Queue: 2 jobs
Job 1
Amino acid sequence: MDPVIRVENVTYSYPDSDRPALDGVTLDVARGSFVAVLGSNGSGKSTFAKHLNAILLPAAGRVLVDELDTAKEDDLLAIRRRVGMVFQNPDNQIVANVVEDDVAFAPENMGVEPAEIRRRVDGALKQVGMYDFRLHAPHLLSGGQKQRVAIAGVLAMEPEVLVLDEPTAMLDPKGRREVVSTVEALCRDRGITVILITHHMDEAARADRVIVMDRGRVALDGTPAEVFPQADRLRALDLTVPETTDLILRLNAAGMALPTGALTVEACAAAIGEALA
Amino acid sequence: MKNIEVRGLTHVYSRGTPFEKTAIDSLDLAIQAGMTVGLIGHTGSGKSTLISHLNALLKPTAGTVLLDGEDIFASKAAIRAARFRVGVVFQYPEYQLFEETVFADIAYGPKNLKLDKSEIDRRVRQAAAFVGLDEGYFDRSPLELSGGQKRRTAIAGVLAMEPELLVLDEPTAGLDPAGRADLLEKLFAWKRARNATVLLVTHDMTIAGLCDRLVVMEAGRIVLDGTPAEVFAQSGKLLSIGLDLPPAAHIARLLREKGLDVPAGIYTEDQLYEAVLALWQGKGGVPC
């Protein structure tokens, strides 16, 4: 594995808290992979995400981005250019009155040449499917559209890694589908490493790898097909089991022999259809 | 007796400007007292505009709303009465907390009702207990609470008004799965204890499946109305207007497309489990 991010035994505590928010987390993230991070509130997911571009610094252990240590102040800009963050509320991330100005904000701050800014802004807006809206006012867009503009703003920095902290929590089902498809395409077609923090099991099911956090530690780590069938374990961590997986586990307990890795409704229906053919 | 009735309701925003938009279009809806009704439809379908009329926050362009047969827009007194009888919890209600303490925030509504001190005290304690908010938080600033506790405080403020009709717009949005299940359980317990009427706006089809009746909106009109089984049986229609299906209903639909004999009204995992097991046994499968 070619790791783009290496997290080594990281511990972090918030002031006034009696237990660490991160408690000895060690993991590598493969370049170009799509990783979903799950966990109930307070499990440490967001704290973990904020360590990846040095918004928070480890109290112990270290985080390396392309071998750059997030604790070294000299490397801070290089790290922030490599790792872009998108947060839950799109309204808190949009700064300009015109979509393309908003997307140009970061490269302008980085001192990129005007012609290059134009190229990057157009490219980023096309990648998220918002190029036709480049002259619109962001506040008149839907939640899903605003969140895609926020993603374009990060893409204009040409990052290696995109970290999204519950980007769909405030969106309706249509907006969720738009954002998740966009993010998935950025990983599959552009090779950008995606780290998606989410409460939605159906979004996590599309990732290459699922990391489940609990009380500041990594509780489960594997492919979706490996993690989701561990129903008892997930419930003990206050998470739900996807309905598809739960159905298959129950049918298997009753004597059928269905593949437990059929996570999407399509795969689940295909597996049941085959067994009944 | 009908608890609330919407008659020929039309609402046009920015009338006479280039931004004119008809959000609600001649809509009729009657809700029986004691029912839990789910209101679904994607963003822009008119759900929020509709619920803003139910306690007279918006005035209709045409049509009206009746509470037990009385027009809520008939007079200033009628409007005021409707605001006390119909409680609306908007999306992300925690952004509306403003008092210095949790107790004062929950007590704000009952105080406006001009209730005496002991009655206000009783209502605040009861509402807090319903949403599972410990009395130890009463003297704290709402700003010091966690997101989940803020949400509970905001909902308790509406429950303390003891509304006959409680309208909730996406009450579980942004909560984790455990928080979602817990809050829903508490809201349903409140509804049962008070025999209130509940209108629940949701995008979550699993939550929609828990309602007695579902109303589906599209472009300012009601396009489907019935029990969850009746509405989810119209899976093609729901998908065509961009809505999700509950996973079980979606799988059932795909199995029917494969020619399997799965009933159309299925929308819960238990129903699908039984149906698949029956088909499997029909093929000679032997359950353990």
Job 2
Amino acid sequence: MNNIGTTRREFLSRASGGFGTIALAGMLGQNIDLAEDPLKPRIGHHAAKADRVIFLYSTGGVSQVDTFNHRPQLTKDHGKSITASRWLNTSGEFKRFLIKPRYQFKQYGQSGAWVSELFPHLGSVIDDICVLNAMHCDSDGHDKATLAAHTGSAQFARPSAGSWISYGLGTVNQNMPSFMVLAPSAPYAGTQTWGSDFLPACHQGTHVLPGKEPLPNIRPRLADGGLQQMELNLRNKLNETHLRTRAADQMLNARIRSFETAFGMQREAPEAFDLSGETAATLELYGIQQDTTAGFGWQCLVARRLAERGVRFLELIDVGSSNNWDSHGNMADHEKLAKAIDKPIAGLLTDLKQRGMLDSTLVVWTTEFGRTPFHERADHPGREHHKHCFSSWMAGGGVKGGIVHGTSDEYGIRTAEDAVHTHDLHATMLHLLGIDHERLTFRHAGRDFRLTDVHGHVVKQIIT
Amino acid sequence: MFTHKVSMKPETRKWLPMVRQSRGNTSIWKSLVIAITICSISKLPTCSAQSDEDFFESNVRPLLVKHCQECHGEKKQEGSLRLDSRDGWLRGGERGQAIHPGQPENSLLIQAVKYEDSDLEMPPSNPLTEQEVAVLEAWVKRGATDPRTESATSTAMSLEEAKNFWAFQPLKKPTPPHDTDSTQTQNPIDAFVLAQLKKNNLSPVPVADRRTLIRRATFDLTGLPPTPGEIKAFVNDKSHDAFETVVKRLLDSPAYGERWGRHWLDVARYADTAGDGSDYPVREAYQYRNWVIDAFNKDQPFNEFIREQIAGDILARDGSAEEYADRVTATGFLAIGKRYGYKASPTYQYLDFADVIDSVGRSLLGLSIGCARCHDHKYDPVSSEDYYALYGIMQSTKWAFPGGEEQKRPADFPPLVPAEEAAKRDKAKQQTLARLDREITALKQERAELNPKFLAGGADLGFESQKPGQPPGQPWVSAGPIEVTTKAQSPFDHIHPKGKVGVRLGSGQPTDGLRYVFENGLKATPGGQMHFSVDFRTVTDSLQKGAFRFYLGRGVIQSLAVECSATSTEFAIRNGTKWETICKLTPGTWYTLQLTIDPDLKKYSGIIGTVDNLISFRDKSTGANWDGVADCFICDGFGFIEGPACARDIDNVGLQTIAFKAPGTGPIFLRITDSASQKRLAEIDAKLKELTNNRQMAAASIAYPYAYGVTEGSPVNARLQKRGEPHRLGDEIPRRNLKVLGGDPISEGGGSGRLDLANWITRPTNPLTARVFVNRVWQWHFGQGIVATPSDFGSRGELPTHPELLDWLAEKFIASGWSVKSLHHWIMSSKTYQRASTDNQTNFAMDPSNRFYWRYSRRPLDAESTRDAMLAISGKLDRQVPSAHPFPPVETWGFTIHNPFHAVYDSNHRSVYLMVQRNQRHPYLALFDAADPNQSVAKRQPTTTPTQALFLLNSPFVHEQAKAFASRVATVSGDDRSKILWAFETAHGQIPVEADIQESLRFLAAYRNEIAKESAEHDHEIAAWSALARVLFTSNQFLYVD
């Protein structure tokens, strides 16, 4: 047995060829060579401020004026009518009524940034957060806007941001996927939101389903680890014979190594999902023990554990395409959704900070679009889709904390200064990771594609 | 950022050194520009002293650079406008000249920066400051001096240049080179390849051994492994054409079409769901898939294969009856792309067409025509006009609608029988339904007359039993001033027998009124109608000006069917969303209102008036979102005129499925319900039940099957959509061929022009179609194409490595009558195909990716082959062609983007038959890099990931197949060694080396030993052989083909 093991190790060290770190710089206009290990860690175009991303996504369209964009004038002018130039995707001029926020705001932290009562815990860590109050996008349909927020393209399936980043930077822990999505269900547009489309499929998001078996096939089907080890040893023997006359073939080496990695994942991934080693204080920090926050708390805490294990891009989606933030009927819906994520996210930021990881971890929170600060009826309790102005935030990973970037008009209807488009958000994410969004390209169907298509500006003002 | 070279004038030179210092630092550069701009503006009053040119340089140029030129400059020309030269803004963009010197008020640029027109606000997200606007205005007013001249740099290939580009040149008829080594050339393909090898100082490796060869050929042509019997036959075949025999046998196997059909389905972006947000299932999609498989199996000439996919429905009309269904099915190629619409509406079709035009271009012509949707192609000779010429063809076509968020049922699927036959069957079905309806109506009429309770929803709906002087009680619900009174008795007696009381509603609040919920509410049935009636008058002395209304629909305003409304002087009805006044009313006069509602059409008609003076109206729309249920009547004060409603009397409310008698035809008398009537009633009820059942079955019966395809629509030319935006229309573009392929107009009376398009694409003078397809076949055989970008033969694509070979193959392919099987035959007969995949360091150093075919490139099994091979070897593979997917019944479809369709259907059929969902990828197929059906896939990108390895290690599928394989091993006679030999040969097609046999023997022994320690319960033999099988199924010898 030992003998076989030694041979295997020698054999594998030859097969894998070691992990070099190659540079991404100078890759403009040419695809990363697919014969290379596509997940090999790479260095970006410039010095990176962040090593990884935790991308928090709230499905359905979160109201800006009820969360982070404090518009006192909206409260003052409640019930007054304005002229809206479009309404529910219909062009024309419409008389609409301003609707005051359902939730009260107050100032938090040194920075005194305004946060509504929906997010008291986030308020308590606001000095680590850069609020973006002049976000805007191009679509006010869920499907398109969700795709745009993830892939930069509202119309056609394209690789998601996580896939681009995995493609560009690879990953440091070969025992884990580079891009993982922790979500109880898919948002609008389904798994396209984390698809790799024309990029190699190893860059697609690996869906982790909160629950008993977070990753498919992660648990050995054999009760006895020794038996599986025996199978692995024999497989390696046979592969060694096979490889002897085919030594130059990288594909074969990569396959051999993938079994080693999978073997490691069987051990490491369940470990990452196992919270039994976390202290009571930590569990409390994320709200794991309360029913309302247990679900997203698990996602946040597991995200931290996966971040510690070197996963490059983590996306956390709170709810799927139904019963989400899409509060057409009644803004009261926002309350329970906010409660589910407020404490877990604040816990995540606090925990990352106390572990010294926040500096190297970029945390982004966003949604597909905002909600109308006005309505057809003066007394209507709901809000409709609104693409012209919404709120998101970023924290850690080279982003200035305790600032509010971008302003809207006095009602939160249109962006006023320092508008940030979804493309800009993507460009900034890539920039913080050391990637020039204009230079990370993939030649496909006769064109060089980018995450930001032909758009995008890095929001330099918010970078430390 | 720095697309424009800034030439500095004296004024600005003062700060030039600073800029130099900070070059490369954008933020400093930016803040400087801002600083300069601001400081110049603050001196604006004195600016008039500056020369015009200086004013431009110091004030205007930086502003244009900062705010405008990124989108209107060298890199991008949003709205076709450039602002980086005088010529640019003079020529203007889509809206015309951008600046009229001296006239700021007439200059679009000024309007745009002032945000005067909500459709034209520039820059789009960060408006200029007032001062900046003032600068631009001043500049235009001064005459808009601008020294910048245009430097025209177009990268696009002109039509003239295209003539010299290799891909657009006619097929040459190359002669295979002669001076090559005859021992290395089996056929002309080898001659071409060898010539290139020699030129590049490469020497080919020898041909592969027979076991390797048959495994390669079998996976290549059928996607399945060879059986030991097949291997043996080939190894022992001493005839000179032994390999040809193998190839012929494989080409004749139905598994061939399942494999090569799948290749085409990648290109055709095949899926079983529509791909809009709710991802509606398409029950008929599989017919197209099967058609493709059959077409390959019967070696349908490829040009016909294409023609039928583009214009099968048109060809079917003039073809034989047997081919009709197949040809219509073939048009699935067009229909099967990703759909974007929530309903069958032209609003969304521009995106569907974008997919179709792009797919047709890439899959058949190797041209990215889709790039010309928003602007002329930047590199290839395809203009926007070309795009919209084809767009018109698509717009003249009628598209099957698969179902979507708003319109949840499929529509416009073409029948698989000829139009006359379909009409005949439709007519027969209609006649059956009509006959049944007549019988049902007659019986209901008779029943109604026998039992007045049945009439109009019941005997006066309990009105007559209400106590006068009080508000109506159960089953009525009321609020506000209201009472039952003899004063409100209607004079009409054709709905209910004449009674004693009606109800009087006072003015009150809008919410005051009367409600009645019909115990047996009506539900829409196909072809069925609903009839409603009510008598009313306004009370003479009520002076209120507001209107009251009658509501009919489901529940308390839950789903509106019909609304009528009246003031004391006017009667109005709601037609869709609009109120329409129908007639004048006289206060105090009784009126009767009758409505006939057609839920199928969502239309209604009616009459209103007195016996002598009836006014009719027709073809009015019900509530757009009415769900077809009518079970609630309301009279309240929310009418077509706001304000307190006038007081009114109401009587004789009725709702039923048969028509009411006309006013004045009464009176209705109560029939005595004697025992004879009772008996007859029971008979009628039984008969009605039977007939209703029959009708339901007849209505649901399928008169003929459908295809997910297209048919001819109304011929129309499209207008160019500026920037690809459907509401920004340009000139009308006549339907025609691409200019680069001849630009032919569609033929006279050619309908949509699809048949012309099919003919243009497949005519032998078009060099692209044959070249593109033979290159694909080559790629599917060798792993890479002669042109490495198989869907892009344009200037951004790769050049062919063997242009002469490509043309030789294309020529020969056409000459053979576009026979795909012949093409396989030539390619596989070559030594080039038969070479081993062994290493050669010298060759490898010079040509690592084997672009010159010095060996055969080893390839991983694709997703389908891996799964099918495991099933085949385990003995579990079901070789039947499965029937339709088990989608939920169409009547239950209510998928929305909030609750999209999602399913994974398990089976042991070949993987090509798995249900392919567009939005939620099949977990296995996605994991192993099968084609993403969201777009045409030219080439799969195999990856090697740990999650794949996890599947191979731990999935129930692999474990089940291994166990089944172990049971097969158990039936092999002999000792462990014989079983091992059988197992290796079956799984890998090779006889194992002695070392591996020994390792396996040791493994089996150790494994048995290990599990014996754990438990005596196990079937140790099956467990140990399953373990060995798992290793065999997941080792590289299995997963790769040499």
